[in-house]
Write a structure and sequence with these properties.
The chain contains six helices and four strands, in the order αααββββααα. By secondary structure, it is of the alpha+beta class. It has a domain of 94 residues. A four-stranded antiparallel sheet has the order 1-2-3-4. Its main location: nucleus.
Length: 140
């Protein structure tokens, strides 16, 4: 009987925490660090907690260098190297495959498939497209 009471209290506490998190997600906008359109779109799509994970990878992708490894008619393979603060590169190199026909990118880490968040390597492929466009009226 004691177990059932403790379990019900824990369950009620968890429900209460979820209600508070839902209220915050619905009524408050997360802090944006830039005028990037992608960042603004993801702030609407993701919950606050997931958005901040995405935002961290978005900023880390700006320190990545993209290098075309090989290409054929439908696919491009890129090597993505991340810069350290001292300017050198990390030893771990990620590979991103881009399907030109399906307009789809996939990294070997499979973060999007597992967590639903694009990794910094996949975001790096679109870095030229996510730079701020001050003259774009859709950026507020």
């Amino acid at each position: 009987m004691d177990f059932i009471l403790r379990f019900n209290r824990a369950l009620a506490q968890r429900r209460h925490e979820e209600i508070i998190d839902d209220h915050v997600d619905i009524n408050e906008q997360p802090m944006l660090k830039s005028p990037l359109i992608m960042e603004k779109q993801m702030a609407v799509i993701y919950t606050r907690k997931i958005f901040y994970k995405f935002q961290k990878d978005l900023w880390k992708c700006l320190a990545c260098v993209l290098q075309l490894a090989r290409e054929d008619d439908n696919l491009c393979f890129y090597k993505v190297m991340e810069r350290k603060k001292d300017g050198s590169f990390k030893l771990k190199v990620q590979e991103v495959m881009v399907d030109k026909v399906a307009d789809y990118a996939s990294c070997i880490c499979k973060k999007f498939e597992f967590e639903g968040i694009l990794c910094r390597s996949s975001l790096c492929k679109d870095a030229e497209n996510i730079s701020p466009n001050i003259n774009n009226p859709s950026v507020k």
